[in-house]
Each structure stands twice: as structure tokens, then as C-alpha cells.
Amino acid sequence: MKMWLMLILATILITFASTYVWMYQGAQALADVGREDEFTTPSQAQFTGGTLEGNALALNGGDSRPGAESIVSLPIKCTGSAPLKVELLRVSCACAHTLLFNDRKLELYDTVMLQPGEAATLQIKWTPKDDQANNPSYRFSAIFLLNDPQFSPTFRVEVTTRILSREGKS
Amino acid sequence: MLSMTQRWLALGGLAAVVLGLVAGVHLAFRSPEQARRRAAPAEDPPLAQRTLREPPPEYFKSLLNPEVVLLVSGQLYSYLQPCGCARPQTGGLERRYQLLSELRAKGWAVSAVDVGDVAPKANDPSRRLREQGRVQFESALQILHKMDYSSLGLGYAELTLPLDQTLGFGLNYQPPYFIAANLGDPETKFPEMYRAWSLDEPWQRVRGAMSGLRIGYVGIIGASVAKKAKEHDATLSVDPVEPALTKALQELAEKQPHLQVLVFQGTRAEARELGPRFPQFRLILTLDDSDEPSALPERLGEQMFISTGHKGKNVGLVGVFKDGEKFDLQYQLVTLTEHFEPAEDQTNPAREAMRDYVLRVHRDNFLEKWPRTSHPLQLDFPEAHYAGASACKACHPMAHAIWSSSKHSKAYENLAKYGRPLAKKDRKDEPPLIIGRQFDPECVRCHATGFEFKTGFVSETKTPHLLGNQCENCHGPASLHVADPRNPKFWRPLHLSIGSFENSCRKCHDGDNDPNFKLETYWPQVRHPRD
């Protein structure tokens, strides 16, 4: 009987201890999130390709067609001594359905980190709708939050594409 | 010796310990990423908070105070309010006013200029009521006047309205002055109603400052816009661009402007050709091919070319900085996000003008004046009319139940609550009439049934059975099917195929009204059986 009681007590104790550790770790993580927002370590981003001016980078999306997926890539490297934080804030066109950061799909308000020296590729995929066909210069953009002060408060990647008619239609 | 019960209890206890240990180790040694997820709030923060996560812009960061800031806009097409219904929205004249106030509060001298096309587009199917378009145009001019705009180009949207009306509206709200150096007036019908150029001294609007940079604006209608406008109105007189520009520049030179800006109603390609022949212009404002503008200005030698997109979603800021004896121009595109939305309890002159506009839309009863056409189904069956969702309920109870619990069924009543409704009381003993956007046909077209078609929604009192976004908005007017349910001649045309209904949705959930619309997300909310 005593043994049984001891086993129950041990179970309660272990469960209590693990819950405590779990809660403590959660609280720490919450505090870390708060601290990150208050104190953003300066970092540095380097982009390859496109035309960069001020807080914006323009990419040529070439030709695209309604119903067909097009893709444009932007290599990014963290050249600073601190990690580079990238957060997706807004995309101006629902046609830009997928943003990939090194194969990880970015949803709105998702954050990804690049460690110093680390490189990644941002891919933007879009599929024009039929009502966007025959547009000689269609532009859309994605707005990011970076912790590189050079690109604060927001960084804009804009893609310009010529939308042709749907394949097979003149 | 332990009894059988004790053995089982001991075994159970041991299993609990093992499980506790496993769970404890798992919980204690999770990755920080997992712990972070656990620490995050269980639900996403409300959309309002998330959309405001985008920080406000910093103006001309790391540079000293500009000598002058030029606020550049264009191609508003009378989108007075933020463009679209579903959040996040961008644009709106109230927000533009707020931005202007922020800049002026910094003590900066701001000169505001618009490229033109303030009036609604002539061929926009969503804005078919010309009378309402004229009221929007007048309201927009009134608001630009309150914002101290200095100059305004004359675009195709203005030139497709009767010119005496366009310029007459302009005269009522000067400044801004319409500028078009090559608009001819051989019969002198429009004296003082437009100018070739205008001079702005923004420092005069900054208290205590009597001197500062003078900005000269010259307006020109490019060849492509002139050609289109003449096709619309053959009596229109538009002179060749270059002689008109030369003459205007000579006149403007007498006023000794420090910076000359060309307000060019034409394409970027045309402007690129013209610009180098008139190097006096450091800044050339052009029309935008794209709905969304580029944040990167185009530079050719000393000249900067910019355009700010359509529907007032963005404005451009050009900071003029002194660089020795010369001026350096810095460009910044500002998207009018929710950051610029005045608080609910605040107002500004643009918001006040919008209240007047909403009241006028109700007073002038645009809802009933909207031109109605035949639904494609009514071309084959002219006697078909809109029956209302209640007529569908008896045979399609499941579909009706799903619709009833969807947002589509409440689309009309939600309009009444939209956009800070006004309470209007004509008589003391009557309850006030709440005026949201439910009297605005441009809104109602997507919030009531069959609004744009014959026998469809007219008003809350005349067609109460067609409130909200009902079955017949997708399926078409169903009265013949209601009267003869089993007749395939009448039910077949109402049947929608998978391929066709997406276009039905997109008539309202378009890129402006619902930028984040995804059929795969929305469809499960309204999916219904045939019963």
C-alpha cells in the first residue's frame, strides 16, 4: 500500500515539476519576444540582382500569362555581425500566392532569421487572373520588416511583369 | 506478498511514473521554437492590430530638413475613400489629409500638386451613374482645395466630361488651378478657368516665413491623351506640345521659380522623349501605366520622372534639399495605410466633406437612378425576374440554411453600419435615419440582389425581399424556375459549373475590394448542396 502511495506521489511530483519547467520556459520565450521588439540588433542585408534604391528593390518579372505560374528569385545574404530578421507584412496582389524563403512558405507576419554569413533565396510566385491579361506593365509588391537600419522602417520588393493573354488565346 | 489488486495498482502507478517521466522530459527539453509557439497567444491578434503592425513611414530619413516637400498625387478617379471594402485598405482623401497635416506639423513647407484624372473614369462599369461621378469629382476638388493643393493637370477623365462643367467645378474650388499650357480656347469660352502654368510659394503657408523656394508648375496634355480626348469630343482644341511648353516656360521665367515641374498628362515613354528637350524641368510627373506605382524614381541626367499609381492609394513625396548652389531631389513613395486613418473621434476637413458627400448621395437618391440592364438570362427569357431567397427555401432548405448563416445574407445590413454612419432626423417625433453606405449604389451593387439588372434590388422599401447577397446573384433571376420547378428549360440556365462560379465571386471580390480573396478559403463558407 505504501509503495502504491509513493508511486502516486512521485507521479504528482514529476508532473508538477515538468509543468513548472514548461510554464517557465513559455514565460521566458514570451519575454524574449517582447525584448526582440524593444531592442532590434542592427544587422545588414545584401541583395543580389534587381535595382535597389532607398528602401525599395525592383525586380523584372518578365512575361507572364493568366493561369500559368511565374516565379522570380532574389538572393539575400546576412552580411552583418548580427542575425538578420525578415518579417512579411503585406503583399499587394492576391495573384502573388506563394512567397518562399529557402523553401519555407511565408505567410503574412511570419518571421525568418538569417545568421551572420548565411544566405537564402526569396522566391515570389504569382499566377495572373484572366482579367489581368494583356497588361504591358503590371506591378505588385511585398512589404517586409527588416532589422537592417538601412532599410527601416519597411523594405519593399516590387515585381513588374508584362501579362500576356492566356496560352492559346491571341 | 502483494495481493492481486495491489499488484495491479503498483503496475498502474509504475506506468503513470513512466508516462510522467516521458512527458516531463519531452516538455522540459522541447526546442526554444516550440516553447515560443506555446508562449504565443492562442489566437491570432485581431486583423486591425496586425495591419497596424506595419510601422509608420519615416520621411527622408538621415537627411536634414528639406527646403520644400512636394506632395504628388494623380489618377484618383474619384476614389474618395480607401479603395475597397475588405481590410487592409489603402488610400482615401481623409488619410491623405492626415499625411499632409503630419508633414506640415513638422514645420515643413509643402506644395501639393496632382497630375489630373481626379474625375471618375468614363468607362468604369462599377461607376455607371454619371451624375454620381460628377458629385464625386466636385467633392474631390473641394477636398483638394481644403488641402491647399496648388495645381492640377487636366486628364482624359476630366476631358470626357463637358469641359465647361469640369472647368466650372475647378473655378469654384481654386486653388488648385487647372493647368494645361496646350489646351486651346479659340472662342475664349473659359476665361480664368485654367492656366498654362502656376507658381506656388509654399513658405507663405508656413507661419512667420515670408520667403523661400518658389515652385513653378507647367501643365501639358500629351499627344496620346489629346488624341483619345479628341475622339471623344471633336470640338476640343489641343495645341502641339513643344511650342506651348516653350511659351509657358518663357512666361514662367519672369516669376523666377527656383524649381520647375512639368505636370505631364501622358505616358512615361512620351515624357522620356520630351524631357531632354526641356532640361529646365528637374521633375516630370507622368501618368502611371500600372495600378501600383514604383517606389523607385526614374532618372535621366538631372531629371527625375515619377508617377504615383491609380485610385489614390499612394502619394509621392519629393524632398527638395539644398546642395550648395543646387538642389538635390529625394523621392519617397508613401502608401496610405491604416496608420493615417484619423481616430474615430477625430475629424479633419476631408472627413467633413465625406460626410457631406454621403448625405448628398442619400438626398439625391442615386440608388434609384442607377441605370439597369438586362441580366444575360433575361435576354433569353425576358419575363424572368428576381424572386428572392425566400422563394428558394421551400425546395432548397439546406442551401437556404447555409446561405442564411453566411455573411452574404447580412451584406446589406452591414452596409448601414459601414463608414461612421450618420443619424439624420427630419422630424422630432421620428427615430433618426441611420445613413451608412446603404444608399450608395456603388456599394449596394455588391450588397443587394440583382441591383444592376432589371427587376432586381431598387431600395429597402421597394424591394425588401432582395436585401443582402442572395442566391440569384450567382444563379440569375429565378422566377420562371420557381413557377415551374421541374422544367429543365428553366433550371438548367441557373446551374453553375465549377469553372464559371469563380468569375461570379470575382465581380465583387476583386483585386480592389478584396485584395486577399482566395476562392479555396472562401468557398467552404458558402458551399451548399443542391438539396
H/E series of chain A = HEEEEEEEEEEE
**Largest sheet, spatial ordering of strands of chain B:** 4-3-2-1-11-12
Largest sheet, strands/sense/barrel of chain B: 6 strands, mixed
What topology, given as strand order, has the largest sheet of chain A? 2-3-11-10-5-8
The coarse overall form of chain A would be elongated
Averaged pLDDT of chain A, please?
84
Summary, kept brief:
The complex is a heterodimer of chains A (170) and B (531). With 170 residues, chain A is an alpha+beta fold. Chain A has one helix and eleven strands, in the order αβββββββββββ.
What does this structure look like?
The complex is a heterodimer of chains A (170) and B (531). Chain A has 170 residues and is α+β, with helices and mostly antiparallel strands. Chain A folds into 2 domains: 1-30; 45-163, Immunoglobulin-like (Sandwich), CATH 2.60.40. Chain A has one helix at 2-38; strands at 45-47, 51-53, 56-64, 70-78, 84-91, 98-101, 104-105, 111-114, 119-126, 135-146, 155-163. Chain B has 531 residues and is of the alpha/beta class. Helices cover 36% and strands 14% of the residues of chain B. In chain B, strand 9 (298-300) and strand 10 (303-306) form a beta hairpin. The radius of gyration of chain B is 30 Å and the shape is globular. Chains A and B meet through helix 1, strand 10 and strand 11 of A and helix 1, helix 2 and strand 12 of B.
Q: What is the element layout, followed by pairings?
A:
The complex is a heterodimer of chains A (170) and B (531).
Chain A: H1 2-38, E1 45-47, E2 51-53, E3 56-64, E4 70-78, E5 84-91, E6 98-101, E7 104-105, E8 111-114, E9 119-126, E10 135-146, E11 155-163
Chain B: H1 4-28, H2 32-39, H3 47-51, E1 68-73, H4 93-105, E2 110-114, H5 130-146, E3 149-153, H6 156-159, H7 163-172, E4 177-179, E5 197-200, E6 215-221, H8 223-232, H9 241-253, E7 259-265, H10 268-274, E8 281-285, E9 298-300, E10 303-306, E11 314-323, E12 326-335, H11 349-363, H12 366-369, H13 376-380, H14 390-393, H15 397-404, H16 411-416, E13 422-424, E14 433-435, H17 441-444, H18 471-475, H19 479-483, H20 488-491, H21 498-506, H22 519-526
Parallel strand pairs in B: 1-2, 2-3, 3-4, 6-7, 7-8, 8-10
Antiparallel strand pairs in B: 1-11, 5-6, 9-10, 11-12, 13-14
